[in-house]
Amino acid sequence: MFGFYINGSIHQIGFITDLLDKLHGSLYTDSETSFRIIQRDFSSIRVYFLPTLAEIIEAMKKDGIRVLILQDFHYKKFVKLRRDGVKFVQIFHGTSDKTYNLNRESKQYDLVCLAGRSMLEDFNRKRLNKNENCIITGNLKADRIFKKTYSRDAEIKRLGLDPKKKTVLYAPTWMDGMGNSSFRKFGLRMPDHFPDDYQLIIKLHPNLHTYRQELVYRLKGKIDENILLLENSDIIYDIVPIMAAADLLITDVSGVSYEYIAFLRPMIFLNNRSFLRFLYGSRRKKIWAAGDVVSRLEDLPAVIRTNIENPGRYRGVQEKIVTDTYTFTDGKTAQRIITALKSLLQ
């Protein structure tokens, strides 16, 4: 009855599996890597690999899928299913200050599940809720943080790091053509400016590994014993456990910041100030109020040290952003989505 689709975006796997399992749904993919991960790590989930979208659509018809649940904007790929009465649901794969989620395609869905009040206000302001198809359910990815699914020490051990050292995570957004990513300006040179008494995890966006391999190779040449570069592999595909290991996050406008803030730990934001950002307009980033903003890499070591030694400097601001972003912090997003799906089918 309930179908899911995922392509090769393996970073989206970790948070949809709970909902998939509770719904006894079927997952369809045209990615061999996604198929392999699901089979290996989530054996209770029905997953089907089909090499083309046409074959996936036919399989969904044959299996009697009545609701297709998507976490990215794939509506146009499956619009033919409308003829068979299939309903479409959007649950998103994250939230951020980028305008990616504010897509006009949202109007085409029968149900749009939002993280909280702030996201709903954005949708109303952009007139994306004219059909009143948007509801607040919570965020599946953040649920595992609110439920304290992962502990710092356990994840540090799993990653093979020193539990006595403070750990910093650098997780930039991908180079999206809008100048949002800090990777080229800051990431490639960060190993040269990182304090030796801390340890650094670098978790790049999967699209950087896929489309900008030459830059990743340049970074690899600078890795030392205090730095762990996590490859885009089918072992390390879920960033939430990695965030749990970190005492401090360094990022830019990545949606990771809106997930990490649920830990109420310090964050540093890298200001790219790129020409493209200027060209397309510079919207103030709400999340940047929750931590120090660094515009020069040379300033980063001192700012890292300040935040490690004084982790609660932005606690009040962070708590307010968490309240605005996540209406629900009870870890029951899946249950609310399921209730909404049942109403949709009545």
CATH superfamily of the largest domain: Glycogen Phosphorylase B
**What is the helix/strand order?**
EHEHEHEHEEHEHHEEHHEHEHEHEHHH
| Poorly predicted tracts of residues | 275-283
CATH fold node name of the largest domain:
Rossmann fold
Named CATH architecture of the largest domain: 3-Layer(aba) Sandwich
Q: Tell me about the biggest sheet?
A: 7 strands, parallel
Strand elements, count: 13
How many separate helices?
15
Q: What level of helicity do the residues show?
A: 25-40%
Overall 3D geometry? globular
Report the C-alpha radius of gyration, rounded: 20 Å
The structural class is: alpha/beta
Query: Distance between the terminal alpha carbons, to the nearest Å?
Result: 13 Å
The fraction of residues in strands falls at 15-25%
Strand order of the largest sheet: 3-2-1-4-5-6-7
Total discrete domains:
2
Q: Care to describe what's here?
A:
- The protein has about 350 residues and is an alpha/beta fold.
- The chain folds into two domains: about 1-140 and about 330-345, Glycogen Phosphorylase B (Rossmann fold), CATH 3.40.50.2000; about 145-325, Glycogen Phosphorylase B (Rossmann fold, 3-Layer(aba) Sandwich), CATH 3.40.50.2000.
- The protein is built from 15 helices and 13 strands.
- The strands form two sheets. A seven-stranded parallel sheet has the order 3-2-1-4-5-6-7. A six-stranded parallel sheet has the order 10-9-8-11-12-13, sandwiched between helices.
- Helix 12 links the parallel strand 12 (about 265-270) and strand 13 (about 290-295).
- Helix 1 (about 15-25) packs across helix 15 (about 335-345) and helix 7 (about 150-160) crosses helix 10.
- The model is unreliable at about 275-285 (pLDDT under 50).
